Amino acid sequence: MNLALRDIRHNLFRFTLTVVGLGLLLGIVVAMAGIYEGALEDALRLPRASHPDLWVVQPRTMGPFAEPSRIPRDTRELVRRMPGVSEAGAVAFQTVQTTAQGRPVRFLVQGYEPGRIGGPEVIEAGHGITESHYQIVADASSGLNLGDQVALGPYRDTYTVVGLTQGMVDSAGNPVAWLTLLDAQALQFPVPPALERREKAVGRNAIPTADINAVLVRLQPGVDATTVAGEIERWKHLSAVPQSMEETYLTKFVIEKMQRQLGMFMAILIVVSAVIISLIIYTLTMDKLKSIATLKLVGAPDRIIVGLILQQALIVGAGGFWLGVALTGATKDYFPRRVLLVPGDVAALFMVTVVVCLLASVFAVRAAVKVDPARALIG
Amino acid sequence: MPDTSRSNALVELRTISKHFGEGAARVDALSGVTTSVLPGEIVGLLGPSGSGKSTLLNVIGCVTEPNTGWMRLDGETVYDDRWMRRDLRRLRLEKIGFIFQTPNLLPFLNSTENVAEVMELAGTSSRAARDRAREQLDYLGVGHRMAAMPSMLSGGEAQRVAIARALANGPRIILADEPTAALDSERAAVVMDLLRRVATDQQAAIIVVTHDSKIFDRFDRILSLRDGRLAAANGAA
Hints:
The complex is a heterodimer of chains A (379) and B (237).
Chain A: H1 3-10, H2 12-49, E1 54-57, H3 75-80, E2 85-100, E3 103-112, E4 125-126, E5 135-139, E6 149-152, E7 157-165, E8 176-180, H4 181-188, H5 193-201, E9 214-219, H6 225-236, E10 239-242, H7 243-254, H8 256-287, H9 289-297, H10 302-331, H11 343-360, H12 362-370
Parallel strand pairs in A: 3-8, 5-7
Antiparallel strand pairs in A: 1-9, 1-10, 2-3, 2-9, 4-7, 5-8, 6-7
Chain B: E1 11-20, E2 27-37, E3 42-46, H1 53-60, E4 68-73, E5 76-80, E6 83-84, H2 88-95, E7 96-99, H3 111-121, H4 126-139, H5 155-166, E8 173-177, H6 185-202, E9 205-209, E10 221-226, E11 229-235
Parallel strand pairs in B: 3-9, 3-10, 7-8, 8-9
Antiparallel strand pairs in B: 1-2, 1-4, 4-5, 5-6, 10-11
Helix pairs in contact in B: 3-4, 3-5, 4-5, 5-6
């Protein structure tokens, strides 16, 4: 006979309230893990979108997501001719702010060369950039629609939305937009109209710099990325960062602090949960001391009594945890940023909850084991 | 050193002593108590408050360890001058039934489950335990309240369920602490009738601690305790 379940049946309302309260608390813990995984996923989407093997960047730098990188635009051609390189594309990154549908929107703009590596991976609606200027492919999370006109840069050049992507945001949750490299450079290094007219009048290029931030490199099949990276660094005096390393830099330097912040918050919530479970199980045990004494008096071994307490702690903890997972799963789409429930994280948090439940039962178990069976004989 | 004249006794105590505290704070709860209870015998244990009744009941129930003396229950030596058996819970489970002043039923189990749980603790399968619990409840006249939770039982019904629980594993020794204190005369008489049936049918030794003068005439023998000593042993009233 399972005494724990019988006691829960007897105190169903109290147990249900406890599980609901704990579920809300553990739901926040699960949501925290989901927010972290979502941020990680968001941060890695953009660098992964083009499937590069190498990121060629300014010497002694770690890539455009970790620190500033400026290299000449012709780097792309230099790299493209290297043995083992299949494709190369120049890219430029910057953050711009504008308004869409009357709301302020902050974009991470990626300038790329249409037809080369560096553009959007999948376009959900519309098409890619077909003109040299003033077309934009934006993520749907920006609120923009196909055909919308959006003004960018200090001189409010108007761009037309020709394509929409889905779920492409940067590590800060800002939607990503793609422009041609030329437009991105014009945004990054804007030239005042008066200066442009004067430069044109004397026959010089109106854009003072043609620098880019990185060159994305895709290698031929079977070519070792480390070898090519070494060659680029040796002969071109540039840094060539393998994709895996770029992802590591991104996660380590860009979102590590957020991870620690969320981890700290989760730890505090888990401690609070432990205190609550401990208090509830202790209170429930105190309410049953006479029953426990009676059980001992009639000959129940300690393992039955300890089992009763531990099972209740685990039922409360597991019930609360899975309720929390269900609540998070049901509400995750309403969060402003992606909440990603990863099975591995959920399993790990469940194990933590189980351990916390067991530890939280210690005081109650100790109190129960110390109960004198003679207490049952007291009227 | 068993008493050969009552060698088939289920409860045998020889010079049992128990004190609490030491030095000036020492209280002698039992001093040299020697007695025995035979199968089928119902013994009343009387005495004023603080005379040591509850301590004696706790000692016989293997809940409290005496300081000196010798004790044997149902043929097994339990205590012999500072040596105490370790498997006391098993002994209680198999050989001793407890009936309390208040029924002390587990509030989260219904009548059947309260009785069956004790059988399951002793190793009876769940199904067999429930079947036997129902039989036991029928035997004690509360078969119609098998599914009732303790809070739904009247005082008399709850006490009979508690007696069914005490009898669950067929114990040879039954210890009852004021079993009729919370009952009116009619119900008290029913409980004592039940104990008599059990004593006769199961040849159990029953020790009843009571202040209830209405049931004094139901005992085969009365033991009076005063200041921890057996003052008198009277025959049946």
